[in-house]
Write a structure and sequence with these properties.
The complex is a heterodimer. Chain A is mainly α. Chain A is built from 13 helices and no strands. Chain A folds into two domains: about 180 residues, no CATH class; about 55 residues, no CATH class. Chain A starts with 5 loop residues before the first helix and ends with a helix. Chain B has a two-stranded antiparallel ribbon. Chain B folds into two domains: about 30 residues; about 70 residues, no CATH class. In chain B, a hairpin with a 2-residue loop joins β1 and β2.
Chain lengths: ~240, ~110
Amino acid sequence: MTNGLLPFIVEYVRSIWRTLDRDVARDIALVCLADALVGASFGAIAVSAGLPLWLPSLLSVVVFAGAAQFMFVGLIAAGGNPVAAVAASLLINVRHVPFGFTVGELVGTGWRRAIGSHLMIDESVAFALAQRDPIQRRAAYWVCGLSLMVCWNIGVLVGTIGGAVISDTDALGLDAAFPAVLLALVLPSLRTAPIRRAAAAGAVVAIAATPFLPAGLPVLLALVGVAFGLRSGRAAEPERISA
Amino acid sequence: MTTTTLLFAVLVLAVGTYAFRLAGPLLGDRVTLSPRFEELLTTATVVLLVALVATTAIYESKDFAGYARPIGVAVGGALAWRKAPFVVVVVAAAATAAVLRLLGVP
C-alpha cells in the first residue's frame, strides 16, 4: 500500500462509519464479539493440534473465511494431503462468486475493489442485504467486513497465544449464534412468495445433500432452488418490453 | 509437512479465495446486467445464505449436530420473525443452546 493511498482509505472508512445507522453498528459489534470468541477457539484448536503458531493468524488475514479455515486446519492436522486440504477449503469458498455479483456495486472500483472484495464474508453480505437504503447497504458491508477483519484476527491471536481458554465455544452456544445471525439478517429478504419458495427448496436440497457430498458443495447445490423462485415467463414478459 | 509446503498451500488457498471474491465485482463491472438478472442474483444470494443457515444449524461437518444447536437457532429464528431486536435474537439462540447442553441435551 503506498503512502499516497492511505489518507484516501482512512477518509473513505471515516465517511462510511459516519453514514452507518447506529443500530446497525451495535448489531455488527455483537457479531464481532461472537466471532472473536469463535476466532479464539480456532487459534486454540489449531495450536493444540500441533500446528505452527503462525498458521492460524496467517490464514485469518489472507484467507479470512471461518468455515474454510476450520476445514483447512482440520485436514492438515489430521495429516491430510495439502492439495486435498486446499481443494476442500476452496470448494467451501466458491459461494463468494455468486455473492460477488450481488455486492459488487457496494465494493466499488479501483483500490476499493481490491480491498472491499477481501472483506466479502457471509456476515458482511448478509448485513448489506438486510439494509433497504443503498447508502446504508454500502456502509453496512464495509463496516461489518472491516470490523470482523479486526475482531476475528484479535480473537485468533488471543486463542493462539492463550491456548485452551475458550476452546469449547459450544458450551456458550456460539455454534447456534452463527446460523441465528444469518437467519435474522436474511429474514427481511424473504419478502415475496417466489423468494421464499426458492430459499425453502434450496435449503431442502442442501440438507439432503450434506451427508453425501464434500463440504461446500451442498450449499452450492442449493442454487437449484433459484429455479423455484422464477416468476412465470408470461408474467415477466410485459416488464421486459417496458424496460 | 515442511514449512514451505504449508506456506505454499496457504498461499494457493488465499489466492484462490481472493479470485472467487474478486470475480463478481470485476465481471459485474464489465457487463451490464438486466434488472431481471440482478433480481435473480439477489435471489441466489438469499438462497445461499438460507442454505448456510440450514446446514450449519443441523450438521457438524457431515453428522447431525445434536438437538441443542437447531433448537437454539429455531428460537432465534422465531424471535427474529416476531421482529425482536437483533441482539435478543442472537443472545437467545446461543443461550438456548448453552442451557440445553447444561441440562444434558446433546
